[in-house]
């Protein structure tokens, strides 16, 4: 079946400016998209996915320029076309759905006003029709109360709903092409399913072509007809989804496919006094109880993964253990002895025993301090190291996290990549020589290959130093690879807990089952099967 | 024509001083500092050179000045001619001598005042933001109350109560200025204390002083440095205003602000002499702000 070609990009080159020099971001990529076809673009961050996606609209971000190649959209040369003509296309025939709907909606206008802007400005339909059309699309996107939801402000609806409202908005002029830039990356797995299903249905119903940009292979497998893999601005390979998943040709693609295969060796059941036990903790802010009667243990040399959707109380549990939030009831024991509820009342040694690694290494490392001081300070403070001994310890720690001491010791955090920053966060925690490290979503801001590196590092450190980890995450793939025990949380309560193998193979609770089944798999039929099984969809 | 010529001479001087100063810093600086000075803009090197000249003049005042500070050496309003190279003022004191001594008094007091205001204001402001709760509330409302009183009237009040010595002058103006610095430092620090690295440092068990000094202050430097340049100039105004009202620097102590006022009548006769102290203030202000801008640029990591 020969379909009509909608978009042809040939030898596209895009450069970005840093200082006075221009560096290539996209290095001569070809792309062909047929009408009604969905193309998945995958790659790590910095691969040029988003830049390429925006170029399909004939647009280059500030500080970027399209330096070579052609972009032909349905017979219109987007590089040569005057800006007015390109503006006429954008929103009307080519639409864009951004990663963060919350940041992309104007917070001070109602959803429906923002919906109507496109059709009215482009003269597709008058305001009245646009409004009724919006309700129709909201219904098709399976948003609750489609008649009313448009009259809310962006902060009054949830993240998943906002992302669907944004997709509806992109559909407003019935464009020929929509570019989805990581639309579900910021969502919980259970919400992600709804958004994915809604996006896929609406794209099919209207026969819209789409470019779907993501770093998540399992997601792209559900959405795309064809997949194109990018690496540092170059195309690695392109094939239709099934053959790409079944038989990737290039080494790089294979390595992407293999990322999720890392799994920590199974550990025997832990015995003895747990490093930390959380006993019947109830805690909250103001009058609201965020945690309700939470209990679990963490043993030395073991990883306990705490999973749940956002708002389930995972991070609050960490705040109770670290002493940032005092529980209303219950207590936290360390090595069998109760810890003072506030960190201010804890001794220096008690503080040392429990260290934390944060999700955003950017905000967790003081940007004005050199690595020497960032890592050295806990060692200096808790262990009383000074001068040569301190220097040696800092170098050891850098070696331990696989960074060359000579090269990095005097750098500032701003001079490191995301993965390296996270490693510094780990080194800072290790410097205190703790028994327990709380990892709060430490890998969720990182690329999959970098994630794997961090997980392997954490696993190795745990084996060498017999550390206990409390691993907070919403990513079940991470849980599968690193956890020994899993604690599933929902609405501030522990739904289920147990050894990883048992929990994954035979979940006892409905919620655990829902959570586990919502994790996308690399099988292109997974979403269909799941929706059929859940009976939401014929 | 004269204006045009002096403009050219001025620009030439600016470039000459800037370039030669930069070359000098580059050769004199220790090795690890050399890159800093290599990338220094011309304005900054000019600024540093001018500030150094002022500092030298203040330190060596009695040596350089040809006459005594309050010494009456000739007739009133003598023209520019040897031995009174810049003429005399309305009491017959040597203008050049007064300018040299004025550098000591005015610049010394202004620097001392601004630095004191910044140390007190920023430490208290950051502390308030860090501790929060009632400490923050009480301090901030107290500062609000102080700021509600017009600055000049408030300083007059304090000076009347505590008497007018140079020390009280410094303390009073610093106290008034510190309220402004406090507000700025507090609002900047409020954005910083919510960062994860502050939480990490708190959990580590760091005390407040260390948090203020090592964790917050380096990140709050850029706006504070910018404010420093501005505040420094306002202090001159405050001192001259108070001197004018008879509560600032007492005659016969030389002070640039009062020197302008005392000799202002000469302007009517087309004589630029009274503008010399004003020019001295202006030049220093420009120089300080050049250096401040450069530091700001470096601290914030801004690129063109």
UniProtKB/TrEMBL annotation, chain A:
<feature type="domain" description="ABC transporter">
    <location>
        <begin position="9"/>
        <end position="257"/>
    </location>
</feature>
<keyword id="KW-0547">Nucleotide-binding</keyword>
<keyword id="KW-0997">Cell inner membrane</keyword>
<dbReference type="GO" id="GO:0015833">
    <property type="term" value="P:peptide transport"/>
</dbReference>
<dbReference type="InterPro" id="IPR017871">
    <property type="entry name" value="ABC_transporter-like_CS"/>
</dbReference>
<keyword id="KW-1003">Cell membrane</keyword>
<keyword id="KW-0067">ATP-binding</keyword>
<comment type="similarity">
    <text>Belongs to the ABC transporter superfamily.</text>
</comment>
<dbReference type="GO" id="GO:0005886">
    <property type="term" value="C:plasma membrane"/>
</dbReference>
<dbReference type="InterPro" id="IPR013563">
    <property type="entry name" value="Oligopep_ABC_C"/>
</dbReference>
<keyword id="KW-0813">Transport</keyword>
<dbReference type="GO" id="GO:0005524">
    <property type="term" value="F:ATP binding"/>
</dbReference>
<protein>
    <submittedName>
        <fullName>Peptide/nickel transport system ATP-binding protein</fullName>
    </submittedName>
</protein>
<dbReference type="Pfam" id="PF00005">
    <property type="entry name" value="ABC_tran"/>
</dbReference>
<dbReference type="InterPro" id="IPR050388">
    <property type="entry name" value="ABC_Ni/Peptide_Import"/>
</dbReference>
<keyword id="KW-1278">Translocase</keyword>
<dbReference type="InterPro" id="IPR003593">
    <property type="entry name" value="AAA+_ATPase"/>
</dbReference>
<feature type="domain" description="ABC transporter">
    <location>
        <begin position="276"/>
        <end position="516"/>
    </location>
</feature>
<dbReference type="Pfam" id="PF08352">
    <property type="entry name" value="oligo_HPY"/>
</dbReference>
<dbReference type="InterPro" id="IPR003439">
    <property type="entry name" value="ABC_transporter-like_ATP-bd"/>
</dbReference>
<dbReference type="GO" id="GO:0016887">
    <property type="term" value="F:ATP hydrolysis activity"/>
</dbReference>
<dbReference type="InterPro" id="IPR027417">
    <property type="entry name" value="P-loop_NTPase"/>
</dbReference>
Automatic annotation (TrEMBL), chain B:
<dbReference type="GO" id="GO:0005886">
    <property type="term" value="C:plasma membrane"/>
</dbReference>
<dbReference type="GO" id="GO:0055085">
    <property type="term" value="P:transmembrane transport"/>
</dbReference>
<feature type="domain" description="ABC transmembrane type-1">
    <location>
        <begin position="103"/>
        <end position="296"/>
    </location>
</feature>
<comment type="similarity">
    <text>Belongs to the binding-protein-dependent transport system permease family.</text>
</comment>
<keyword id="KW-0472">Membrane</keyword>
<feature type="transmembrane region" description="Helical">
    <location>
        <begin position="107"/>
        <end position="135"/>
    </location>
</feature>
<keyword id="KW-1133">Transmembrane helix</keyword>
<feature type="transmembrane region" description="Helical">
    <location>
        <begin position="147"/>
        <end position="176"/>
    </location>
</feature>
<dbReference type="Pfam" id="PF00528">
    <property type="entry name" value="BPD_transp_1"/>
</dbReference>
<keyword id="KW-1003">Cell membrane</keyword>
<dbReference type="InterPro" id="IPR050366">
    <property type="entry name" value="BP-dependent_transpt_permease"/>
</dbReference>
<feature type="transmembrane region" description="Helical">
    <location>
        <begin position="228"/>
        <end position="249"/>
    </location>
</feature>
<keyword id="KW-0813">Transport</keyword>
<keyword id="KW-0812">Transmembrane</keyword>
<feature type="transmembrane region" description="Helical">
    <location>
        <begin position="275"/>
        <end position="296"/>
    </location>
</feature>
<dbReference type="InterPro" id="IPR035906">
    <property type="entry name" value="MetI-like_sf"/>
</dbReference>
<protein>
    <submittedName>
        <fullName>Peptide/nickel transport system permease protein</fullName>
    </submittedName>
</protein>
<dbReference type="InterPro" id="IPR000515">
    <property type="entry name" value="MetI-like"/>
</dbReference>
<feature type="transmembrane region" description="Helical">
    <location>
        <begin position="44"/>
        <end position="65"/>
    </location>
</feature>
